[in-house]
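Q: What does the assembled structure look like for these inputs?
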Amino acid sequence: MRRYIDFYLSSMRISILSQIQYRVANYFYMIGMITEPVIYLVVWSTIAEQQGGAVGGYTAGTFAAYYIVWTLVRNMNIVFTPFGWEWRIREGNLSMELMRPMHPIHNDIAYFSGWKFVVILLWLPLAVFLTWVFKPTFDISWMEAVVFFIAIWGAYLIRTMLLALLGMITFWTTRVSAIFELYFGLELILSGRLVPMTLMPQWVQTLSNYLPFKWTFFFPIDTLVGSMSTQELWAGVGMQVFWIVIGASFLSLVWRAAIKQFSAVGG
Amino acid sequence: MSSVITISQLAKHYQVPEREGGLKAALTSLFNRKYKTVKAVDGITFTIEPGEVVGFLGPNGAGKTTTLKMLSGLLHPTSGEVSVMGYEPRKRTHDYLQQITLVMGNRNQLTWDLPALDSFDLQRAVYGIPMDQFKVTRDEFIELLDLKELVTKPVRNLSLGERMKMEIVAALLHRPKVLFLDEPTLGLDVTMQRRIRTFIAEYNRRYNATVLLTSHYMADVEALCKRVIVIHHGRILFDGDLSNLVNQFSSYKTLSLTLQNPEIDLSKYGEVVSKEDGRVTLRVPKAQTSQVTARLLSDLQVDDLTVEDAPVDDVIDQVFSQKEEA
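A:
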């Protein structure tokens, strides 16, 4: 265990040092990333004003709060992608990682975790700017703040597991872009990235309860913006733990088959 | 003394889809796909003792890298048995991976934007190397490879050879007992090749490590390996001392002469290979070497004469061509 902690800290350190080298590029990347929520925010604020000040309980102020928190949660959702797995296999880098006495997923989790610290640091001025422009409405208790902090890392781990699972397909075939796009389309609708889940039709909301997506996006945002009870907050964290365990278990199972497949075809 | 590496009837076969070119063949293959079995490694057997440095030679596609990948656990054998230090490599156990390393010419384990020192520290964490041991080993390798001025520069600013030296350091920091080296000097200049060869020899001496090395540079093999295994089309053609390989497969010797009159026609003594700066090189059948030498000395005014075995490169070429013809 001590060794893994040491590894995680070392890998995060390397990641932070690397990302600092690219701080300007990272900043432009983040500025580009806020375009999407700003468009959603402007559209929904306009609709809210036209409908007498609110849509489904969301005022212009709560929409602003939703999409400002969105920018941070979106960054926490950035993980090693299935395209990365494809690249890793094609370029032969997976062979190098398999020579280490450690599963490659540890490096992915640790490296991207380190990146998050840089991202959060760069996000703060942007959040201040968006707050000044859009005047969000926040009413945050200390409990919500604690759960939010846990939930963004829970979201990060769920998405890491899900996308690693998706990446496993590349062990069998490399023509998988269409499958990835289908997945990302579903995720967009069922996670709360496009629109808060409570504004979706009831059947979509019901469906999303049985899938992992909303626990990676809507739930962390709702801990700060919504009005969940303490019990609901912790139940949400429980659901995140559930999906992390499910994701990790499936990944472990599929990994065994995938690695045999890799061994069979070379690389 | 028990062997470190034991391979018995090891084979790796691939099923490769095969079709003619053109649209018709492409459409036909949708319904009736044909496969060809490629025998990358076809039943090889050998053992390697602790501390041995063995050259694993063969042309491209002979099965060298496939064998190294099976030994390091990256590939599952189709059949046969492999044991390295008593471990079954394909299981890739933590203990096993902790004691071996695989260095490939294209390997990239360094972080591009940071000094290599940071990557070395990550390797320490990956292998759980105690800090004291890590510092001693790292500094020892930095000195041996003369890297002191380079380890603080970002990796992206290093030359290919400098990066390769860093890769080797990173791969050996955990002091592996068995080294699988696949073309470690590929693409490097002569000075850099020599440096890496010296380092491998020193590592072998200090830690009594067992080394299996593939290289297309015969200088690597001659400098490091007493024993060589020659593989071709997935089968072993020769396994023994490098000197025996030359004796067994070389049918000629090379005579180098400096004559007082270098313009004289020497074709009746043997095949003239080159004539440069007054020095002539002749290729003579091995059985006739002493007879031709005596004739040259009695017939001509010779200032200097040396008799040498054929270059190892030529011998290896000869081994492959003989087997192709057979």
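The first strand of chain A starts at residue 54 and ends at 55.
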